[in-house]
Amino acid sequence: MPKYRVRLVYRPGEDKPAVLEKIAELDESFFPGCQKEPLKENFWWYVLDEKDRVVGYAGMRYLKDEGFGYFSRAGILEKHRGQGLHKRLIATRIKMARRLEGEGVITYVAPSNNASMNALVSRGFRLYTPERKWAGTDFLYLRLEF
């Protein structure tokens, strides 16, 4: 079984254009045609395989005024799925939100994305209705309060 590492590669405000370029490339491959994330405002993590190849990524923006971490994008290359990597990325982002003294984390998921929904629910996320559906009305919204 391959060994994987999750590594924080970008913090908001850093000057790392190569990392942001790679995140934009991953974002386009996993979410083609979707509205682009404000890359510089997010924390970003890579999932690296045993040869230090990027096989996944995830982002989180910390909304200080609201006291919540907002999970933005996450994706794992298909041949590396089924290894619990998405759950590791969820746990990593929860840990960062706690470190930032947040009150919890929020996210959204497409109703057809059963794998993500199951991973989030298994970590304690529950459905909720936000005041503003920032991703649109075609998504399910979830949160985990600390």
What keyword list fits this structure?
globular; 146 residues; Aminopeptidase; alpha+beta; 31% strand
What is the CATH-assigned architecture?
A: 3-Layer(aba) Sandwich
Low confidence ranges:
none
Distance between the termini: 33 Å
Oligomeric nature of the chains: single chain
Give the class-level CATH name.
Alpha Beta
Strand order of the largest sheet: 1-2-3-4-5-7-6
Largest sheet: 7 strands, mixed
| Backbone shape | globular
CATH superfamily: Gcn5-related N-acetyltransferase (GNAT)
Spell the H/E element sequence: EHEEEHEHEE
The averaged pLDDT comes out at 94
Provide the number of structural domains.
Answer: 1
Which topology does CATH recognise?
Answer: Aminopeptidase
Characterize the structure shown.
This protein has helices spanning 17-30, 85-99, 114-122; strands spanning 5-10, 43-48, 54-63, 68-76, 104-109, 126-127, 140-145. The protein is an alpha+beta fold and 146 residues long. It has one domain (5-145): Aminopeptidase (3-Layer(aba) Sandwich). Strands 1-2-3-4-5-7-6 form a 7-stranded mixed sheet, sandwiched between helices. Strand 3 (54-63) and strand 4 form a beta hairpin. The radius of gyration is 15 Å and the shape is globular. The mean pLDDT is 94.
List the helices and strands and how they pair.
Layout: E1 5-10, H1 17-30, E2 43-48, E3 54-63, E4 68-76, H2 85-99, E5 104-109, H3 114-122, E6 126-127, E7 140-145
Parallel strand pairs: 4-5
Antiparallel strand pairs: 1-2, 2-3, 3-4, 5-7, 6-7
